Amino acid sequence: MATSVRDVDGAIAWREAGEGDVVLFLHGLGGSRIAWEPQIDTLSDRWRCVAWDMPGYGESSPVSPFTFEAIADAAVKLLDRLGAESAHLCGLSFGGHHALHTALRHPYRVRSLVLADTSAAFGGDGTDPAEWRRLRTAPLDAGLTLADIADDVISSIAAPGFRGVERHRTVAAMARIPEGGFRAACELLPCHDMRHRLGEITAPTLVMVGELDEETPPAYAVEIAEGIPNSRLEVIPGAGHLSPAEAPDIFNQLVGQFLGSLPGVRP
Predict the structure, then answer these.
(1) With contact defined as beta carbons under 8 Å apart, do 141 and 131 qualify?
(2) What's the half-sphere exposure (Cβ side, CA atoms, 13 Å) at 189?
(3) pTM of the predicted model, to two decimals?
(4) Mean pLDDT of successive 10-residue segments in the chain (267 residues)?
(5) How far apart are alpha carbons 234 and 232 in whole angstroms?
(6) What angle (nearest 5°) sits at the alpha carbon of residue 144, between those of residues 140 and 150?
(7) Three-state SS for 158?
């Protein structure tokens, strides 16, 4: 049974539960720490599960300049605050980018990687960065808030039929994002390209993708799994771009099996 959950606010804000090895959950562009509730609830009976608000998101303070390097450094600062020499990183979409950058910038602080519905680089399908940014910030330019558009955004990236408590929680997670943080993230995300460095990653890696993910399709996950030497790929049937929320039981089972198989991991 999961342990009690506590929220910690400050320059870096997070939610955590459990004891043992740290599993750090890194949310996506439209998420925040509360999006990982199904994982914290289930996996915290075996590990210390920590879900952050990325710098500039939720209750976390912004960092300047807002770069992938600065975000990786912030993740390591959080590990310092937690008293953890290293952690398992679980990143969804944009959070998967951060997990990759952290593993390469701070390899000795990363014990393993779980990369969900993410990519090795932006624009694998030929997407124009300027147009991608424009589409995501246009509603804000028109005076809407992230809370106003959250429901429609979630509908556009999840598989059909995503409903219930997890959908409500995912919408609420997006509504917590400050406009400034979201705009900064939209500027940064298209700069992501780690294709040429995947082979340098030594951490054991689980790559997962929703079968119906159209944002970062299964072909992107195949590219990551083929590029990282010690990795394996799992496709989650019927899920879209938000597999941790759309298919939490399967997602948690795969993460639990993966972490439990690693040598020296304390349950």
Answers:
(1) no
(2) 25
(3) 0.96
(4) 81 96 98 97 97 98 96 98 97 98 98 98 88 96 97 96 95 97 98 97 98 96 97 98 98 97 74
(5) 7
(6) 90
(7) coil
